[in-house]
Every structure is written in C-alpha cells, then in structure tokens.
Amino acid sequence: MFILFFLPGACRSQQAPDIRTATHGRSLLWELKHPQQPHASYILGTMHILCPEDAWFSPALRQVIQYAGKVYFEADLDDMGQMLTAMMAMVMQDGKTLRDLLSPEEYNRVEAYFKTQAPLPFNMLERFKPLLLSAMVSEQQLPCEATNGMELMIMQEIAASKKPILGLETLAHQASLFDSIPYEVQARELLKAIEDTTGSSAEVDSLLSAYRAQDLDKIERLTIQEESGLAGNLDLLLYGRNRQWVSQLDAILREGPALIAVGAAHLPGDQGVLRLLEKKGYKLRPLANEPEPNKKSL
Questions:
Q1: Which of these, 34, 113, 171, 260, has the minimum number of CB atoms within 10 Å of its CB?
Q2: Which of 154, 149, 175, 176 is nearest to 166 (CA)?
Q3: Percent of the chain scored above 70 by pLDDT?
Q4: Best CA proximity match to 281, nearest among 240, 249, 244, 255
Q5: CA distances for 179 relative to 96, 126, 183, 236, angstroms
Q6: Which segments within 60-152 are labelled E, that is strand?
Q7: Is residue 39 part of a domain?
Q8: Per-residue pLDDT tens for 255-277?
C-alpha cells in the first residue's frame, strides 16, 4: 500500500489527450473532470514494487504524462532529505528491537530468515517496525530477482521534461502510522509472514493477477483479506489516508492538469479515492490502458 523538478503548468496550453473508454470499465488509469474546471486530470493505480515485465507503460499513460503539468505520488520520492528523515521514522520508538517482542526461539527464526534474504545487516533491520519488515517479506515473494515500480518508471519518463513531482504526504508520515499499531501485534504478523511464505507467495500472485487484469474490485477484496490479521487498522492505513488525500486533491486539481499516481488499493470501494472524488463532483472515466505492443499483454 505503501509509495521532482519545477516547471509548473508547462503543459496547460496543450489539448487534453483523446483516449477511448476502457472496455468493461476495468482500468488502472482514470480521467477526472469537474464542471468548474476547464481541464482534465488523471489518476493511476500503481504497485510500488513489481517485476519488470509487470511495470509497463500504455500509450494512454504516455499521453497523460505528456499532458499533465505535474505529477503527485503518495510521497516525493526524489527528496533525499525526506528519505533520510523517513529512515529515522522506520525505527521503533524507545529503543525497542525484535528481541524485545519475540521469544528467543522466534527471534532466532526471524534472524535466520533475514540473514539469508535481506541485503541489510540484521542488527539494523531488527530495530525497524515489524510491519515494514513484513512488506520486505512480501516483496521477496515476487517471481523475479530484479524489481521495478510504476513510480520509478514515471520518474524516468519525465526526467528530461523536468516536470514537478510532489507528494500527498511524507515518507516519515507513512512510517509513523505504524506507531499506532502495537509493536507486539506487528511482530506476530511478521512471524506469520515468515512461517508461511507459501501462503504469502499465493497472496502476492493473486494481487499481481488482479493488477495485470486492472481489476480494482478484486484488488479491494484482496487488500481487505490481506489486512484481516490487523483488524481495525484499515482506516489508519488506507481509508483515513484516502480522505486526507482527497481533501488536498480538490485544491490541487483546480490548479491545472495533473497525474496522481498512488497505490491501486487506494482507488476502489465506497471509501476509495475514486468514490470520494465523485462525491466532490468529479466525473470519472476509466481509460483504455493496454500495454504497448512490445510489452506482455494482460
């Protein structure tokens, strides 16, 4: 769930791209139009970590990126100062480590896993909030060694044009959300993820399949299912952030055409960003978002 340059309004004089509506309404890319705004904006559902063959551009997305005056991610991924602050926020408060949260035998199992699977030394990782480590376990279930993400591809695509990339929240804020969930609960979830890598792999495969099919309804169902072990925290991790973002987007989208790229799980459902924007008066249209011909088809 969790996910650069300054030339504001550079593309505002361009005509909005003419992109056909997606068949059956399934798409990760949506057009946003408000009757009080002369321009269109767009929102893209992403996955932050993907195998390279699943991180693809469509002709429609390239048109949208060319037209948009700026791009908003969940956080500004090009701000090195923000990255450093986020690293500090990833650490558990009060000097806690995994050793404080697990039995010696459990701790040894977690240590053995990360010593063989993680690129960072375990004496650093054991200080991280356990749910962040659980996310690392999920990433390792991807069926590829090298990984990519849609955010990185978009950053590379617009680097030459120097369009601004901004964030709806900070990386440090994202990491701080996990302080509201007891570390002991997080540690149990981490242990479960490590002990059931087969189940974790199946969950990742299902989510990738839904993402390739651009099936937001299925992505929503899988997200709720995945978070079932953290009952009561969907509002903290998903829905509350959606509301906060939409309160910002209503002003952001009035400024000129923009592309909003956030985790796909934030888009669907009654409490998703799409429905919340619709309640603000935006007309939504799913766009045909097929991969370019040289890419793997959905």
A1: 34
A2: 154
A3: 91
A4: 249
A5: 12, 15, 7, 11
A6: 70-73
A7: yes
A8: 999 999 999 999 999 999 999 99
